[in-house]
Every structure is written in structure tokens, then in C-alpha cells.
Hints:
CATH superfamily: Gcn5-related N-acetyltransferase (GNAT)
Oligomer: single chain
Number of strands: 7
Amino acid sequence: MTSVQIRDAQVSDIPLLAYVCLQATGGIFEALYQGSIPGRETSHIVEHLFSRLNATSSYRNCQIFEAKGEAVGGLHGYPFDASTQDPGDPLARADRFHLVRPFMELPPPSGSYYVSSVGFYSNQRGRGYGRQLMQEAEAIARTKALNSMSLHVFERNSPAVTLYKSMGYEALGRQPVVTHPLIRYDGQLLLMGKSLD
């Protein structure tokens, strides 16, 4: 059996966290940030999110999944209500805000522990690691005295939806995905949640 470990993220994990974010968000972050810093790769631009210590996007709100001593995936989550105090992002372009309209039009999952992204390198998927990271997220939520979980997921991301449903998550709302060449899914964006009571 593979030796696995989940640990708190460190500054050196920020490139992996950016990768996870880009994979998990299905192209939303590519569409939001591409070209925000001329001549810089989108993955490097997205890294700034995890460097912002005064925001919920900080690496301090992330967990790293290691298999055989190697970091292979990660999770970013936080109490949703803390995000209402986040400072604005100077690299987020106002002319692209319409891309996140579906997220804004769904009911805010107040009082929950919100899983912003969870993912792994492609060669590490399908090994049950996602379930282990989600169980860790639920354990963290309980230590913060939060009794519910929430996340957004593209309905057409069937492996992720299947995992969440198998863990007791239910759809709380849905909105049409905004069409954009960099967004890899169409159809519906789901808000899913689960009670920890």
C-alpha cells in the first residue's frame, strides 16, 4: 500500500497549488488571469493568489497530499464567511468579471467550510486520494466549529460530481456556465453542500 500523508502547505508548495487551482477550476482562472501580466505564464500569475497572506486564497488555507514522500496534489479551503473580508485583487480585470457571474448568482454558502479547489497531478488521479483530501477538509471544518461543507463544481465534471455525491453532497443550486474559449466545461455550474451534523 502506498504511504500517503496530508500536511499543511508551505510557501514552496505555491506552484503546485496554482496547478491544482488551474486544473480544478476548469479554465475559469485561465480566462480570468491570462495576460494580466504581459509576457508571464498564467500559472505564474495565479501563484500570486496563494502568496496573499491577508486573503482566504493564502497558502495557509491549503493542504498538500503526499504519496511516497512526494507532493502530488492539494486542497484549498476556508470558512466561507471569511471571504467577505478579502481585499480586492489588483490582477483581476473588471472586464472579465462576467466569467464568474454564475458563482455570484448562486446563494452564498454562509456558515460553511468552502472547498475552493481540490486536485492532483494527472498521473495520480483515480487512486482515492480525492476522497481522503475531502475527508481532511471535513475534519478541518469540524475543528473550526462549522457544521456544513460547500463547493462549486461543473456538472459535466462527472468524476468530481460522482465523488461528492458518494460522500453525501447534494446540489443546492445551479447556474449556466459562461461560454469562453478557455473554459473547458459548458452546461451547468453546481453549488453542492453537505451537513456535518
